[in-house]
Structure formats: structure tokens, C-alpha cells
Amino acid sequence: MRFNNQLLLPAWQRTTLLWAFLIAPLFLAAQSPDDYAEIPLDDITQRNVVSEKMPLAYAPIREADIAWEKRMWRVIDVREKQNLPFIYPEAPLFQILANGIAQGKIPAYSTEDDKFTKRLSNVEVDAQLHKTDSILVTDFETGEDILRIVKNDINWENVQRFRVKEIWFWDAATSSLRVRILGIAPLITDLDENGNFRFERPLFWVHYPSAREYLAGHKAYTHADNPAANITWEDLFEMRYFASHVIKESNLYDRKIEEYLSGVDMLTESGKISDDLFAREHDMWTW
User: N or C: which end of the chain has fewer CB within 10 A?
Assistant: First the structure.
């Protein structure tokens, strides 16, 4: 059998092709499985119940049916055992709220007041959710120190308390004492260079009725020891699965408890306000 010499490749091209066939499998073997394989499901089924859940709409309230009301401000301390779901490492509440605000799914309001009068802009929100620091770095080419600005996310572990604003009212239509949460504000702890406590301040206010749908799509990990339980953050707040203490009630002087009491007397007054709610509901029924 005779071959046409014009169809034969030069020697250097045949050598190049030979090396290509020998080396190509090595490059393919060096690729990570993550480069072409799908991420496997870390579960026994797709979990869509929570993500697709919608909260029940509030029943309308007639102003004429509100026989009595009292506005209250509470503090939820995440270090209490009942409030440990607030700092569940995989999904702490502050991180859930921060993600919702950053994605534009829930609005954030200024802490200049607690009446939701000023909505924060994207720039203002970014300033609250990130901390800007300046560090000295060495330029390897010149050997000089250069001041560089870096932006770090706020550590959610520094948010140890949440402030809650709510309204308690007597609904004459249903003859019941009811409560509606109006807002939630995470309180961040500022520390000095030595890690000592300096002060505590609210980062922003979240209008709870506007955030109910978002919170209903995020699961809350409770003390039930049943990961299959589909309790959302909206459920947790509506069913009041949290421990708290009162720091202020609506009053003629518009002052907090800490402005006229201190120490143990503050806790005593907080408990007294909570007891008065129960007594009022009891009196309504026995009147």
C-alpha cells in the first residue's frame, strides 16, 4: 500500500500532536470535580414549605373597637436560654435581617426616632451594616507603608439584644386583649481597643408588619429538638416564643424606666408593668 506524501505531516507536527495526546489526560485529571459536577443535595428531599409560606393577613381593626391601648418597648436579650434561637450560628436573626435589607426585600428606618419617619438610603444602610477601618500595608515594590481603607461586615455576635416596639390593646369586637408588634431594632455593642464595653446603640429599625412576609420565609431553629418543625421567624414573633423585659411604656412624661429608677427597682417596675397587663385583662372579663 502506498501513501500520498502530501498527506503526511512534518515530523515536528507529529511530535507536537503526540505530546498533546500524552499531556491532555493529565490536565483533565487535575480538574476538581466541582468544576463540572452539580452540588449534591445535603438532605433527603427538597425543603420548600418555609420558603413558599405566606403569613396570614391581619384581621382589620376598627378604631371604635379599641377600648384601651398601651404602647410598650421591650428588650430581648439573646443570651437568655429561651432566646438562643436568635443566635443560631447558621442563621442568626441579625444576619437574616441584614440580608433582607441589603437585598432590598425589607426597608430599614433611621434610629433618630422609633416612628419609622425616615427610610435609610442604600448608602446609609451600607454604613450601618459594614465597619470601615484603615490599616497600614507594605508596598512590595517600593517598601513603603501605605494607608489602605478596608470595609468589614459587622460581627453578628456583637448584636446581643433586640428592641421591640409593640401595642397592646383591648379589642371590644372579640372581647380580648391583643398585641401587635410594630418594629424591631438590633442593638449592637461597641467595644474599645481592649474589648471592654463602651456603649450600646440601635443600628436601624425594621417595620415589622412590612417584614412579616420576608420573615415568614425563613426558618427559626427553636428548642423543640425537631429540625423538621417548620417554625418561621414570623411564627416565633406572633406566638411570642421569646423572653423579654419592658424598658418603657407610653406615659405622660414619655420617659423610660431607666430615667426614674435604677438597679433592681428597674426590673421590679418592668415586672409590675407586665403584671398590670394580666390584671387589666382579668378585670375586663370580670367587669
Answer: N
